[in-house]
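Sequence only, no structure available. Ideas?
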Amino acid sequence: TCATSVRSAMARHAGPRLPLIVKNLIPTLSSVFDSQRITTTAFLAELLNSNVVNDLMLLETVMDNMMGRQKDTCTLVRMLALRGLGNIASASPEKVRKHGAKLLASMVNGMDDKDDPNNLVALEAMSSLSKLLDHVEERDIQSMLLHIAIRIRPFFDSEQPELRQSSIVLFGNLTKFSEGEVFFEQILNGLVTLLLHLQDPKPEVVKACKFALRMCGPNMGCEGLCDMFLNHLREDRSLHYGEFMNNVCKHLMQSYPEMLNRLILTNLFYFKSNWVDIRAAAPMFIGNVLL
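Reply:
I predicted one. Tokens follow.
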């Protein structure tokens, strides 16, 4: 919050002095003190949220320095650097198209961060990637699409609701680039989880699942299922879950009878879910599929 306020004030009033300020701040990104690297990274990350970096031709300089922080020993610095790179989507969308491959690679590296016990870096990478996807070229995302989909899948069931929400929203956004059998398989792999988490205890996760399923619908080759997702999973509409799942299962078995075993086995995993409503939804799902 402090970095946001300082950035806003600087963008409004510092104007021509900003290049010199940035030049003097950049050496502190290599400081031995975590606090200095954190403070500077936070400020520069927020600066990327303002079009002033374009006006003063600072964007490439700040962006390159944020990318250079990806291997910082401090988790918070790595997280803030990814936040800054994601901020480019709102301030300079045309630059996202220009630097799409590098920005996407940074997000993928963040999701693969091996020294991130609380998944703070992964969470920021998923959130920032969702922002960038509206502006990247399709050719840049296609080569990474499958890796990202597989990498985020375990987060759907994370104990941290923020990770569930961000990963599911990102999955929904990825479907805009889906084509062919490869990504269709990822949709089928995630389908049971998304449908069960419509009973998630956190409203923001339920909202994310509704969004992801609406995005998946047109890619599933089943008009009835697509219509159900679009009509019944609107954000402003309450859901009668039992009736909805009964009809979803009818469409699934009519369109994909070969999925029966996969649907049953995936649901069996959720019989031991920590969330009671999801534990209850899984056997109901199996019962509807068998009927």
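The two ends are 54 Å apart (CA to CA).
Hope that gets you unstuck.
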